[in-house]
Write a structure and sequence with these properties.
Blueprint: H1 14-19, E1 25-30, H2 35-47, E2 52-56, H3 65-71, H4 74-77, E3 79-83, H5 86-95, E4 99-103, E5 110-111, E6 123-128, H6 136-141, E7 144-147, H7 159-174
Helix pairs in contact: 2-3, 2-7
């Protein structure tokens, strides 16, 4: 066995990425404060061909050196928008027909492994502030809340880790290998 070279990975160019079909997912960041987390989420969004990342509230926007450091160029491939308010962004997405899925521990939340996206629907995945999580206002606007089952003493993952887990799990159910 040997590692593949970058040339052997057959990665899309930014132009090819922009022109390619996207997964049924869009990411909304509700007041995510860490620039490294934002960059990491962009990188995961690129890996799973996410439609866009919507940055809300205190969430910083590209271009920024600290975002770029962890995004490794994904801010160039993945489309993004900024909104002062996550609730405004979520209401717009609802009007566009997206199913709003907040990744948060709530009454009635569904374990991620039991959430089944429906074919033909588009999903806005909302991830929140590193300490406070998804705002209560956005939770109340959500169609469903999912949580990642955890078994240790901590009750949360880093937001960028959460985004990677959720995208991996859901992409495996909705996307086929090309």
């Amino acid at each position: 066995m040997r590692k593949l070279t970058n040339d052997e990975l057959n990665r899309k160019s930014v132009r090819e990425f922009k022109a390619s079909g996207k997964s049924p997912f869009l990411i909304v960041l509700d007041n995510v404060r860490s620039l490294n987390n934002i960059g990491s989420i962009f990188r995961s969004a690129d890996a799973f061909i996410v439609e866009a990342v919507w940055l809300c509230g205190i969430t910083a926007t590209p271009p920024h050196r600290e975002i770029h450091k962890s995004a490794l160029g994904a801010t160039e491939s993945v489309d993004w928008k900024y909104y002062e308010s996550a609730s405004t962004a979520v209401m717009e997405l609802k009007q566009e027909g997206y199913v709003i899925v907040s990744v948060e521990q709530t009454e009635g939340s569904i374990p991620l492994n039991r959430f089944m996206p429906e074919p033909g629907k588009r999903y806005a995945l909302v991830f929140g502030h590193e300490i406070k999580g998804v705002s209560e206002e956005v939770v109340s606007l959500s169609d469903v809340c999912v949580e990642i089952p955890q078994y240790g003493t901590k009750h949360s993952f880093n937001v960028a880790v959460s985004a990677g887990i959720v995208l991996w799990e859901l992409a495996g159910r909705t996307m086929t290998n090309e």
